[in-house]
Every structure is written in C-alpha cells, then in structure tokens.
Write a structure and sequence with these properties.
This protein has about 375 residues and is of the alpha+beta class. The protein has 3 domains: about 10-180, 2-Layer Sandwich (Beta-Lactamase); about 185-305, Beta-Lactamase; about 310-380, Arc Repressor Mutant, subunit A. The protein contains 17 helices and 11 strands. The strands form 3 sheets. A 5-stranded antiparallel beta sheet has the order 6-5-11-10-9. The chain has a 4-stranded antiparallel beta sheet with strand order 2-1-4-3. Strands 7-8 form a two-stranded antiparallel ribbon. A hairpin with a 5-residue loop joins strand 9 and strand 10. Helix 14 packs across helix 16 (about 350-365). The N and C termini lie far apart (about 60 Å).
C-alpha cells in the first residue's frame, strides 16, 4: 500500500482514529493499526515500546513488522545501551512529538556507533517518538521510523504526529488499565465487568447506563465520583465540567474528544489520587459492543501512580543540561574517563570533551571525581 499523501482526506484520519481505539480493546489489532500510522505520517515502521533508562533495557509491546526480526533483536541485545535518545526521554514532555534533532545535534547523531552500525544499514534517517507514560525508571513510548525515501522529520510530519498521539496515548493507557489479552466485541461489556478498575458506560448526557462492580464500589463512597440526577459526576468542579464536555463530544465521534479525557485527575478524601480515562464507543467494534446500552463512552478509573522524578531527570533539570550533556555525565559516572566514554558512546573524544567542559561550567565543578560525587548525591541523598 502506498504512503498517504499530505492532502489525504479527513475520512482516512477518522478511520485511523477509530482503529486505534478498537485496538485498545482488541490488542491483536495493534500490528495492523500501527502499519496504518506508518503510512499516515509517512514512515517505514511504527512501534509501541518501553525503555528502562536506569538499566538501559527495553521491550516492544506492539509493532507493524517494519523493522526486521534480526535488527529488532540486535537493538535490544546491544544497541539499546548505545541509543543516544535514552537520555533525551528524561526531558521529553508526555504527549509531545520529539525527533532526533530535538534530542541531540544531527551531526553528532551521525557520529555515533548507534547510527553507523544499526540505523544507517537499514536506510533509516530519523525517528519521531512521544512518551505515553513514565515512571522514575522507565518510559512507555510510541514512535515512527523514517526511511531515506521519507527524509527527515518536517513540519508536516510533526503536525500529523500530533493528530494521532492523543488517541494512541488514550488507547495504550486504557489497554494497560483493563489488561485484556483478547476481547470479542459482542461480549465486551461482560468482559469489562470483571476488570479490577472502575468502569462506567455513559450516554452523551453523562447518564450512567451501566457500571461494573468496582464502579459501583466507587459510587458507594460518593466522594470523588457520584451519581447526580442519574449522571456520573466528579466531586471536583473542574473535573466534573471536563467530564460533561467529553461526554457531549464523544457523541460526535472518535476524533471529537481529541486530547480531552486522556487522564483526568481525581482525589479521594483520604488523599489517594486516581485517574479517569474516557474511551469513545461510537464506531467500529466498540459501537457494536455498546449498542445494547446506548452508550457513547466508557470511563475507566484506576489508582494513580506516584509522580516521582528519576534522579537523572532531577539532575538534568536542576543544572539545565541538554540531553547530550546528561548522556555524557551519566557515562562518565558509569564508565570513567574520556577515551572510555568516547568508545562506549561511539562519538569522538573531542565531542565528549566539549560536553564535559560544559558540564563543569553548569555544575560548578572542575574534575570528573566531583561530577561523580554530584550524581551520587542525587542517587543517594545520604551521600554528602
């Protein structure tokens, strides 16, 4: 199938968004859906994956097969540790598209062993990605590789990426909440009744037409979520207003809700934090599943993870380091001197020395030993 052209009509985008949401409930659809996102950008391959920045490991959850099994295995066995994008993802804002040049100068990227030995042999020239969710040690990401025939990421590619990111993020987060391996559309409501998260099916006015046991338990407390006139309502006025807007928009189709309702904050009286995700049910397999309930959206409620920044992220922001500077700093701590870091990162010693000089200036240090001590103080607050 040929790459989609920039003047592709809006119906193609709407169809893609519908497919993305269907994949949230039927994970087996992801490879085909990701193939469509590749053609939409366009790019050679799309993937949803995770990286553990602390251990420099990773895992692919779903991909479209555009990267060969050989290169995929090679990446996680060897090159994930050399990927210069790792440090950059500490700084990446959730839901924003980030290309190679946003993480490091492109000429520096071309220097790296990662480019010479893994990227270039495949004809890849660029990669645009976004952080979907992150913890202090790992990030879940969605990204698309660009081949030589597509060229570097440009304004049009960024615009297209921004069009699909909110929907991919919502679908992935909801898929994580309900953790379904397979789900037949006809039995979807019964399947969702058994999940641990609270689940509510609502119409365009917010009227609750169905709730699972966990949802009823949340409503029984009547604090962060309650029933008002038959409608699902939040205790916080701003969140409640947002829910009303989302339910009304959901009745207009998948694309209408855009970035709204991806992760609405909720707070219980005891201070515990929860998050609500809203999935439209107006097309595809989701529409068939919800037809008997006349529902336009499903609301999933789960306990929120603690928002704790990782030590490298704290260091990077505290000293206003660039991703390249943070990458060199962490390598100095882990590996040692300039020649060793140069060899490990696959860049010239002069490049390492340039970043090292900037690190000294920004951190107020003069020697590598002082940099090591500085990083140790963030990793272990008891170190003085």
């Amino acid at each position: 199938m040929a790459d989609w052209t920039p003047d592709e009509d809006a119906s193609a985008l709407l169809a893609l968004i519908g497919d993305i949401y269907d994949a949230a409930l039927e994970p087996a659809l992801w490879p085909e859906v990701l193939g469509k996102t590749s053609r939409f950008l366009p790019g050679m391959s799309s993937a949803i994956f995770a990286k553990d920045a602390a251990n420099r490991t990773g895992n692919v959850y779903h991909d479209d097969g555009g990267i060969s099994p050989y290169f995929k295995q090679l990446y996680f066995e060897k090159y994930v540790k050399l990927d210069p994008a790792n440090a950059g993802h500490y700084f990446s804002e959730i839901g924003m598209p980030v290309s190679t040049v946003d993480l490091l100068p492109y000429d520096e990227f071309l220097e790296t062993r990662f480019f010479r030995e893994w990227v270039q042999p495949q004809g890849i020239v660029d990669f645009v990605s976004t952080v979907l969710d992150k913890t202090p040690t790992s990030s879940a990401l969605f990204g698309i590789f660009r081949h030589e025939r597509h060229g570097l990421i440009d304004d049009e590619a960024r615009r297209r990426m921004r069009l699909i990111i909110p929907h991919v993020r919502r679908a992935v987060l909801i898929g994580k909440v309900i953790d379904l391996k397979t789900a037949e559309a006809a039995n979807l409501a019964d399947t969702l009744d058994g999940i641990a998260a609270g689940m509510f099916l609502v119409d365009s006015r917010g009227q609750i037409v169905h709730a699972n046991a966990a949802g009823h338990a949340i409503l029984a407390h009547g604090d962060m979520l309650r029933v008002t006139g038959g409608k699902l309502a939040a205790g916080d006025p701003r969140t409640n207003e947002a829910l009303g807007d989302i339910f009304a928009l959901a009745g207009s189709g998948d694309a209408a809700i855009g970035i709204k309702g991806i992760a609405l904050p909720l707070t219980a009286p005891d201070g515990d934090r929860y998050v609500a995700h809203v999935l439209p049910l107006t097309s595809g397999g989701r529409r068939r599943a919800a037809a008997s309930f006349a529902a336009v959206a499903a609301v999933f409620v789960r306990k929120a993870a603690l928002e704790i920044q990782s030590p490298p992220e704290v260091i990077g922001k505290a000293y206003r380091l660039t991703p390249s500077e943070l990458r060199v700093l962490l390598a100095i701590v882990e590996i040692g001197g300039v020649p060793e870091v140069s060899d490990a990162l696959g860049v010239a010693e002069t490049t390492v020395k340039t970043h090292l000089s900037r690190l000294y200036k920004k951190t107020g240090t003069n020697r590598q030993a002082e940099l090591v001590k500085l990083v140790a103080s963030y990793m272990n607050p008891l170190v003085g």
